[in-house]
């Protein structure tokens, strides 16, 4: 039975607070589905969107969230091409894309000029029922519990893709900055599953313990280590530095450091989005050392399926704590202070 109204976390304005209120449950239009959401992960992006600290701004009033997992409960016209009622599906950052431009055709659909995003330009997953475009909803393997699947829909797919973009060979070394966070702890695992050696960078005992449990070669504490660049280089096999770095930290300093500790020909994959951060490269040294910068923006529909598949095979496990939807403001506060190892998943029923 689909209710007339359901609970949602609504932010009236940028920089404002979120309130749990009843909102009307809509009917899916052409090409859309209605999903009864059970769980949503909380990504640092949701916090950036609410605070409004990026050069791009979300639409308000806004229901945030883009790591949703639930079941299809209604199909709009033509949506049965993609899903059936009762299918477990995930809602990721992309709500839709045009499916017809050069970017969509090339599998770089996040760069589609008409892309719409959950929890940014469209209402997202901090609610019990959500409308989404059928084409971008990701099938969730039946063996994967919905709470454990939710964080894979942004954090998982994003780092899985970023590691592809780094394009390393098994046995090579990847530095992961922000390694104990939502994206980072999954990056450690996808990298290990791909046969890479990992140098994990983050801070505190809890995050160190988490990273160590994934078999990383070294954990470098960015807050305690006086010379982080030297420590990361020293942790690489030949002392010259890692072959690539996925920076999933939401702080700017991590970028400057990564360009320094990478070995010559090393690849920096920017993923984390600290506000007001620039990547500066001296032209002479950029040529002399031939380091590359290859930013990575979420992943495409295929990446999302692959990343869930790998988790379904048991090679990657989300580290998460479940909290109620009403605890979202506290989750943002903990996130802001770097107190979350792994992810927080919201139970949308409470
Ligand atoms: O498509 C994308 N590129 C994409 C997708 C999803 C998220 C980008 N993001 C962005 C988010 O907007 C955010 O800016 O990635 C960043 C990380 O998101 P998250 O993993 O959801 O955030 P978190 O759980 O708070 O983890 C961040 C970690 O970074 C560490 C913190 O200790 C925390 O564990 N960190 C910080 I802040 N500064 C660091 C530093 N200098 C650092 N780790 C190493 N060095
Ligand atoms: Zn996200």
TrEMBL record:
One of its GO terms (molecular function) is alcohol dehydrogenase (NAD+) activity. Residues 15-346 form the Enoyl reductase (ER) domain. It comes from the Eukaryota. Its cofactor is Zn(2+). Signal peptide: none annotated. SMART domains: PKS_ER. Its EC number is 1.1.1.1. Keywords: Metal-binding, NAD, Oxidoreductase, Zinc. The keyword Hydrolase does not apply. Belongs to the zinc-containing alcohol dehydrogenase family. This is alcohol dehydrogenase. It comes from Jaminaea rosea.
